[in-house]
Amino acid sequence: MEEKHMKVNHSLQKAFAIIEMMAESGAELPLNEISRQTGLPKATALRLIYTLQTMGYIQQNSRTSEYSLSLKFQLLTNHTDIYHDMIELIRPFMQRVSNHLAEATCLSLCDNQELVYIESIDSLDNLLNVTQKIGKRAPLYCTGAGKLYLSAMTSEELTRYLDETPLLALTAHTLTTKEALQQKISDIQHAGYSLDEEECEIGVKCVAVPIRDSQGKIICTLSVSMPAIRATEEKIQQTITTLKTVSAEIPL
């Protein structure tokens, strides 16, 4: 088909009108405001938003019902400037942890009820490293860092998450019942750290701690992943102590 005979896809135009407007705004917006600023009927805007939401590019605040572009969209377009300063601030602390423990460290965020890895530092001291690809997504319920975000949810938010999320067994060690996961979350709340004991991937263990702002809110998570063969009880305890000490020094 010749280009001059091709027709413009108006639905795609409207979807990008929403994306461009939300990117320029940089804030969470209610449906009424999205409709007003784009000039789209509310029903049309809602249909397009729902499509983008199911694809993971728009997220909805469960408390306010307002919409914003997700981290998946920002990573896709390489618009990670909003996290650049935070990553640059935390990277030296990650390097300290990696050097001290001779293991890989990761920095993660929660986006649209999933864990997203935004920075990773490998250890140069071991040939066998557990490396996480930047931008990779993983479930909250079976990752060390992800369970920290679950532990910070209100009881209503956690109930909604458990009702909406199938607890699929990724390994024989994955917690697949609500009761078992809720007990683990309670343990994490008291301990201040979280473990992934081969729940996400066989042969890999992880220790994670939260990085909080001055108000106590979890901004991101710092974790150390290692082959299970090196994850002795002594090494796990050393990792917990190191992560807690270093994370407390990060000035957020």
UniProtKB/TrEMBL annotation:
Q: Record's Pfam families?
A: HTH_IclR, IclR_C
Q: Which UniProt keywords apply?
A: DNA-binding, Transcription, Transcription regulation
PROSITE patterns (alphabetical): HTH_ICLR, ICLR_ED
Q: Which GO terms describe its biological process?
A: negative regulation of DNA-templated transcription
Q: Which domain of life is it from?
A: Bacteria
Under the GO molecular function aspect, what terms does this record hold?
A: DNA binding; DNA-binding transcription factor activity
The HTH iclR-type domain sits at 9-71
Domain (IclR-ED) spans 72-252
Q: What is this protein called?
A: IclR family transcriptional regulator
Native organism is Enterococcus pallens ATCC BAA-351
